[in-house]
Amino acid sequence: MSSRDLILGRVRRALADARKDDTPYEQAVSRDYLRRHGERTAEETVELLAENLTDYRAIVHRSDAEHLPAVLARLLTARDAHSVLVPPGLPSHWLTGVEQVPDRAESSPYDLDRVDSVVTGCAVAVAETGTIVLDGAPDQGRRRITLVPDHHICVVHVPGQVVSSVPEALERLDPARPLTWISGPSATSDIELDRVEGVHGPRTLEVVLVSEQ
After folding, report:
1. CA distance 101 to 88
2. pTM greater than the 0.70 cutoff
3. Please, which pLDDT band fits residue 31 given cuts at 50, 70 and 90?
4. Which of 63, 106, 201, 208 has the fewest other C-beta atoms within 10 Å?
5. Of residues 85, 38, 103, 30, the one with CA closest to residue 202
6. Which sequence spans correspond to the domains of the chain?
7. Are 146 and 118 in contact (CB under 8 A)?
8. Average pLDDT over every residue of 115-120
9. Across the strands, what pairs with 125?
10. Cα(145)–Cα(107) distance, rounded to whole angstroms?
């Protein structure tokens, strides 16, 4: 008997005496919690996102659509990044003057590790938690391309892609898609609380907040 069969057997035995007319899970669990904490304008929500991103040690930049290519070029030059991993749906005019490495299914982790940087969009950003969510859309690519390279630049359109809370973010997301929730650069701590960054994801996360106005 496999571990899976063992666990499912235990679940079936635990549910054996449950009445068929028992309260459905959707009704049994209370959903009356606050969907957000306080009322904020769109501008205040974006400022809260920037503040919490910074608290998580992400590096936040501001731009508008016209100047975004110049901002990206400056950030990549500062990192001395010559090769950039690019999702298939990333707007072509965003990047110039660098080797663009396409997101290929056959790329190995070693191939991805040799890339200097990766640039993506996002699905939604959560102000209250300073979290960016990727869902594998064409401007974000496969999940692994944002987990292996050491430097990730993520473009967030504000205020359109920013929500206040996690419940509001979940309403925008498809749970069947490959969701990646990012709160700052990858980091972990040992028992002595010594922080180490870049363990299971990018060591450096830069977020460009692009004004839609």
Report:
1. 10
2. yes
3. confident
4. 106
5. 85
6. 38-211
7. yes
8. 97
9. 132, 162
10. 10
Residue with tokens 């102000």: 127
Distance CA 58, CA 209 (A): 12
* CATH of region 38-211: 3.40.50.10420
User: What is the per-residue DSSP string for 21-84?
Assistant: TSPPHHHHS---S-SSSS---HHHHHHHHHHHHHHTT-EEEEEETTTHHHHHHHHHHHTT--EE
CB-based contact 185:197 (threshold 8 Å): yes
| Contact yes or no for 121/182 (Cβ under 8 A) | no
For residue 202, give the amino acid letter: P
Residue by residue, what is the 3-state secondary structure of 87-130?
A: CCCCCHHHCCCCEEEECCCCCCHHHHHCCCEEEECCCEEECCCC
Q: Token pair of 59, please?
A: 């590096």
Q: Which two tokens stand for residue 31?
A: 């959903």
pLDDT at 101: 96
If you search the block for the tokens 């996102």, which residue do you land on? Answer: 49
